[in-house]
Amino acid sequence: MDLNKRMLIALVLITVILVVWQMFFFKAPTINRIIGDSTKISDTSKVAKTKEKDTVIRSRVVVSRKEKTVSTKVAKLPYKSTDNSDTINITTSLYRMQIINHGASIINCYVNKYRSVKGDTLNILKGIPQSGITLYSGDYEIPLDSISFNYNKKYIELSDKKVDTLLFSWKNDTSNILLGYVFNNKDYKIDIFYKVNGIDVDWVKFNFNNGLAYEEKYKKNEIHATKAFANLGGTVEKYSSKTLKKGDVSYVGHSSFAGIRNTYFTAMYISDPKDVKGFDIHFVNDGILNFSFDKDYIHDTLNTVSLYIGPLDYTILKSYGGQFTDIFDWGWKIIAPISKLILNVMLFIQRFVHNYGITIIILAVFLFLIFFPLTLSSFRSARKMQELQPALKELQEKYKNNAQKLNQATMELYKEKGVNPFTGCLPILLQTPVFFALYQVLKSTIELKSVSFLWMKDLTAADPYYILPILMGISMFIQQKFSNPDPKQKYMTYFMPIFMVFIFLNFPAGLSLYYLIYNLLSLLQLYIIHLEVINEKKSKPDESK
User: Fold this and answer.
1) What is residue 24's DSSP assignment?
2) CB of 58 within 8 A of CB of 48?
3) How many angstroms separate the CA atoms of 225 and 215, rounded?
4) Total of domains in the chain
5) End-to-end CA distance of the chain
6) Claim to verify: residue 414 and residue 277 sit in the same structural domain
7) Which spans are transmembrane here (predicted)?
8) Which of 25-29, 116-120, 146-150 is most confident?
C-alpha cells in the first residue's frame, strides 16, 4: 500500500474515531437539565446542592418559551418623557463607545484595532440600546430603560488619563438612583457601580439584548460560532444556538461571569460570584442571543458589576485569571490542549518578530522540524515498500490459494529487508490531531484579524486573489508526482491538489499560508529522499565488485 493510500486511510480513521468518541463517549460537564414544554420557570426554586471547588448551590432549567411565565408586576418610575435621547461619546485607546441617557444604555462600540470588510472601524454592536438594567422589589420589576438620566459629561476622551467616570443620576421626591461607568484607557472591561435610595430593591437584573453585530459577508460562520457561556462553580459551560432553540436557559446560583460570543468578539457580565443570583439566556433567532445577569442588591453601599465588550483576545482574557480562556472554542476535548499549546507558541514567536505572517511561517518551520525525523522515516519506509512490490507480487502469485502461508512469507520478507509496514502510518496518526488543532486556532484567532501580510489585508479572511490556495495546489501536485510513481495511482496526483485548492479557496489566508509553507518544506524533504536514492544507485556497482 503506497503512502498516499495510507495517508487517506489514516486521516479518515482518525476523523471517524474522534467523531464517534465525541458523539457517544464524551459528555460535556452539565448540571441537572430538564427539557420539556411542561417545565415552568418556577421550577428553578428547587435548588440542587452540589459540592464543587467553591461549594456553590445552584439549579438550572431549560424552559420552553411558550410555558415561561413571569410572576412579577411591572412598575414604572415617574419621569419627564422626552422624544429624544442624548448620546454620550467615550473614546479610549482601544475603542469608541456611545451611550444614550435613556436607560444609560450602550448602543455602539467601535473597536479601533479591527476593520470591517469596507475598511472602516468595526462596530461590534448594532446602534440600538443593548445594555439595560431592571430593579426588582418584592413582586414588582422596575425597568430603567425609559428613564431619562441626568449625566455629568457629554464627552470622555482618555488620551491623557488612564481612568474616567461617567455618572448617571435620577431622582424624584422620594427616591434617587446613581449609576456610574468607569472606563480604563487600556482595558475593554467597564466597571459599573450603582446605588438606589428610597426603593426597597431586592435584586438587580443586568440585560444584554440583540446579540453582537456581525458582517453579512460572514453570516453563516457567525451564526455557527454564536454561543452563550457561563462559569458554573469553576467549569465553563457553553450553550449553542441549536441547544437554545429548544428553550431558554435559566440558572439559579452563583456564577462569576456569563455572556455571549461569536467568532472573534464577546460580551459578558463579570462579578464576585457570592453576590450573583443566576442568569438567563434567550434565543432570539440565528446568530442573536439575549442574556441577563442577576445580582443581589446590598443596601447602604455602592454595588458593583463589570461589563466586558471586546475581542476574544487570549492574552487579555488570560490576564483576568479564572476560567476566562475556557470560553474559546479549542475544538474537541482531545485536541483542546494541543490547540492551547499551539496558540501559546504562536504568541511567544510574535513577541520577537511582530508580524503574524512571519509568525505563521516560523510556526510551520518549527512544527515541520519536530515531525521531520518521523516523516523522513515514513518516506523512507514508503520507498522501501515500493521497492518490494515485485517481490510481494511474486509471493501473492505463489501463495494465492494459501492466505496463512502468504502472510507468513510476507512478514519474513519484511524482516529480511528491514521494513516495518506500520512505520509509514505512525507519523500521520501523530500529526493528524496537530493539524486539527492548527485548523481550530488559525481559523478563529482574533490576533490575525485585520492583520495584513504581503497582498492580504486580513489573515482571517480568504486570500482575495486566491494566490495562496493555487500555489498550495501546485506544490501539492509536485509533491504527488515525486512521492507517487505508481501509474495506477495517477488519478490521485491530479485529484488531490485540485480538491485541496477548492477546499482552501474560502479558508482564512493565515491557514492557507501555513499549509503552503509546510508543503514547500515537504518538497525539500522529498528532495533529500531523492538524493539518497541517487547515492544508493551510485554505490551499487562498487558493492558488486
Assistant:
1) I
2) yes
3) 13
4) 2
5) 34
6) no
7) 7-26, 356-376, 421-442, 462-479, 491-509
8) 146-150
Nearest to 426 by CA among 381, 482, 384: 381
Do 416 and 289 share a structural domain? no
* Phi, psi of 200, rounded to the nearest 5 degrees: -80, 80
Same domain membership, residue 488 and residue 409: yes
Q: Grid coordinates standing for 289?
A: 442571543
Pairing mode of beta strands 235-240, 227-232: antiparallel
Last residue of a domain, one of 328, 359, 381: 328
H-helix or E-strand containing 240?
Answer: strand 235-240
In a shared domain, residues 417 and 530: yes
Out of 328, 349, 371, a domain closes at 328
**Rounded-to-integer distance, Cα 353 and Cα 55, Å:** 45
Q: How far is CA 114 from CA 94, 311, 453, 464, in A?
A: 10, 9, 15, 18
Same domain, 300 and 360: no
Cell of 455: 497582498
Position 285 in a domain: yes
Residue range(s) defining the domain that contains residue 533: 340-539
* The dihedral formed by the CA atoms of 155, 161, 162 and 167, expressed in degrees to the nearest 10: -30
- CA atoms of 53 and 490, how far apart (whole Å): 59
Grid coordinates in use for 143? 425597568
Residues 270 and 345 in one domain: no
Q: How far apart are CA 432 and CA 371, in angstroms?
A: 12
- 95-145 pLDDT, tens digit per residue, is 999 999 999 999 999 999 888 888 889 999 988 888 889 999 988 889 998
> In the beta sheet, which residues pair with residue 135?
142, 204
Interatomic CA distance for residues 29 and 46, integer angstroms: 20
Distance CA 265, CA 214 (A): 9
Cell of 433: 490531531
Name the helix (H) or strand (E) containing 60.
Answer: strand 57-63
Model confidence over 312-370: pLDDT tens digits?
999 999 999 878 999 998 888 888 899 999 999 999 999 999 899 999 999 999 988 88
Residue at grid coordinates 524533504: 525
Residue of 222, 247, 347 whose CA lies nearest to 44: 247
